[in-house]
């Protein structure tokens, strides 16, 4: 019996003894992909094995996410997931082939992307209060662009619309880039999306930033008001997380958590993320799980109470 225990312990301690995959459920080039490739390069030396980024896009992130949910919990198939894939999609569709919490082992909450409210300069508003007044005077005439129905920026805008008591026109696109571009050109008048997409246009004067969607001002943009300063209780944060399948062994989860947090907080990585409007985090698996549960309750309630639809 002792011999078998020693053999089992030795086999477990050998992890990792082959390359690992990091699944990204979206195409290359986005924030999730950048985070995955950053982690792959920085964690390779510490773990002694290569981490291969595998983009499995489709079905609003559900294809790649399901792949990980149904993988063996051996530490060789991992995931960079989003608030969308684990919380938002579930709020709209209870019949997805995976459960955003139950079918995964949360390893670490990687970062939050600072989400901004930006408008085309033709809109006669310089703050959130003025924008709401313009929208109330022109019901259904101001259009907001999103990365698609059910996307996080769709929900962010829809909650704003309900809380502000206004009516806007939703224009869904097939991604954040074309949605931002059409706001810049004036096809849409407002967009709620990551600072990574709006900031270059704000600096160039092509968009006007009115606020951030979190409850308080973002440390990276201290001069930009929080929307909650005008609409108390408005608080929406888009996050990215690192996951394994449900049942990932505790020792592997702990090792991954240590290496992920170490990589994300390397001074050069932290600086490059902040330059993009991405705020890196440092959480335990337990803290991440608790925040996911809170977000799930919030979005399930918001979709139901505000009657948000995938239109």
Structural features, described:
The protein has helices spanning 2-13, 31-47, 62-69, 83-92, 128-137, 152-164, 176-184, 195-203, 250-264, 267-275, 285-305, and strands at 20-24, 51-55, 77-82, 104-113, 115-119, 143-146, 169-172, 190-194, 208-212, 238-245, 278-280. 43% of the residues lie in helices and 19% in strands. It is globular, with a radius of gyration of 21 Å. Residues 4-11 have low confidence and may be disordered. The protein is an alpha/beta fold and 311 residues long. The protein has a six-stranded mixed β-sheet with strand order 2-1-3-10-4-11, with helices on both faces.
Can you describe this structure in just a few lines?
The chain is of the alpha/beta class and 311 residues long. The protein is built from eleven helices and eleven strands.
Structural class: alpha/beta
Radius of gyration: 21 Å
Q: How does the overall form come out from the CA principal axes?
A: globular
Number of helices: 11
List segments where confidence is low: pLDDT < 50 over at least 5 consecutive residues: 4-11
Order of helices and strands: HEHEHEHEEHEHEHEHEEHHEH
Q: Proportion of β residues?
A: 15-25%
The number of distinct β-strands equals 11
> Taking all residues together, what is the mean pLDDT?
91
